Amino acid sequence: MTITVLIADDQAMVRAGFAAILDAQEDIRVVGQVADGAEAIEQARRLRPDVVLMDVRMPVMNGIDATRELVHPSRGEPYTPLVLVLTTFDVDDYVHDALTAGASGFLLKDALPDDLVQAVRIVAAGDALLAPRVTKRLLERFAAQRPPTNRHALALAGLTEREHEILVLIGRGFSNGEIAGRLFIAEQTVKTHVSRIFTKLGLRDRVHAVILAFDAGLVEPAS
């Protein structure tokens, strides 16, 4: 299947460069390019791309607000794309705000072309992606600044004991393979549990599962 992409960036040369890299792939097609967040929302709803590449700093509406409106539309829009945020700035606030707005990935613009291509494929497949150098400190900062809440209590009550156990391990940063090793079960079994956890909790990807685990107090910063 071809992955369709909309590029939102206020710099024309950046948009052209991203488009050239992505259109050179057999499985990716750029369907549109826009220069601000408001236009990104309008064109995303018209073109319905699989993935929106979203810059953070743009005129009219910034990429964080545009992401929030696309992923959690105020008017009940049924279409919600996957958003991969791209920025020049390695700033924790941007990453934190992008993820809480509903972005499924975060990548710095100085990444290699192959990294951009793989990022689009990873996000399109339903997995989350963070630039490695910001992941650990982001989650630690998130946990330290957000006191636990009970707003997830009802949803968490619907998990089985095993699913709850696996969610905690996801929150601690373990991969499916590592979880399988710790629990002495098959990795495919872990994948099945993870899929059910995401469905029951309405999660889009692994990063948001980690955020929920911290938010609900299942994992503490010291973990």
Strand share of the residues?
5-15%
Instruction: Indicate the CATH topology of the largest domain.
Output: Rossmann fold
What is the CA-atom radius of gyration, in angstroms? 18 Å
> Helicity range of the residues?
40-55%
Order of H and E elements: EHEHEHEHEHEHHHHHH
Termini, distance in Å? 40 Å
Secondary-structure-derived class = alpha/beta
Query: What's the count of strands?
Result: 6
What would CATH call the class of the largest domain?
Alpha Beta
Major beta sheet, strand line-up: 2-1-3-4-5-6
What spatial form do the alpha-carbon principal axes imply? globular
GO biological process, one term: regulation of DNA-templated transcription
Protein name: DNA-binding response regulator
InterPro entries: CheY-like_superfamily, NreC/VraR/RcsB-like_REC, Sig_transdc_resp-reg_receiver, Tscrpt_reg_LuxR_C, WalR-like
Keywords: DNA-binding, Phosphoprotein, Transcription, Transcription regulation
